[in-house]
Amino acid sequence: MHSEANGTWDSDSADALKRFQADQNLTPDGKINSLSLIALGLGPKRLTAQSHAPADPSKADPAKTEAPKADPSKTEPKTEPSKIDPAKPDSSKQDPSKTNLQ
Q1: Using CB atoms within 10 A of its CB, is residue 30 exposed (0-12), middle (13-18) or buried (19+)?
Q2: How far apart are CA 100 and CA 102, in angstroms?
């Protein structure tokens, strides 16, 4: 900086901004724009899920809440691959041509 900060936007201020913009790979035009503000850390803040979570869960937006987890006691048991005997036909997969439709 060539002079002391005095709270006035003048040619020294614009020159300092141009140097900053060039250092940040921005167009060094000396004008305060959105990219310059973001590079200075003064741009819009991104909100996180934690910073926006309502204190009262009953007021939560149902569209943004997580789906409830499935109850493992109510799901079908999974057959382990090692217990399947490929020599035995699977009775759950019936041949539709052999079904008796009356």
Answers
A1: middle
A2: 6
Domain boundaries, the chain: 10-48
Can you say how many angstroms the Cα of residue 59 is from the centroid of all Cα atoms in its chain? 22
Residue that is written with structure tokens 């503000």 in the block: 37
Q: Any idea which of 2-6, 9-13, 47-51 has the lowest mean pLDDT?
A: 47-51
Q: How does DSSP classify residue 77?
A: P
- For the chain, the farthest-separated pair of C-alpha atoms sits apart, in whole angstroms, at 99
Tokens, residue 15: 């020159």
Contacts of 21 (CB under 8 A, 6+ apart): 27, 28, 29, 30, 36, 39
Please tell me whether the overall predicted TM-score, pTM, comes out greater than 0.85 for this model: no
Residue 84: what pLDDT?
Answer: 63
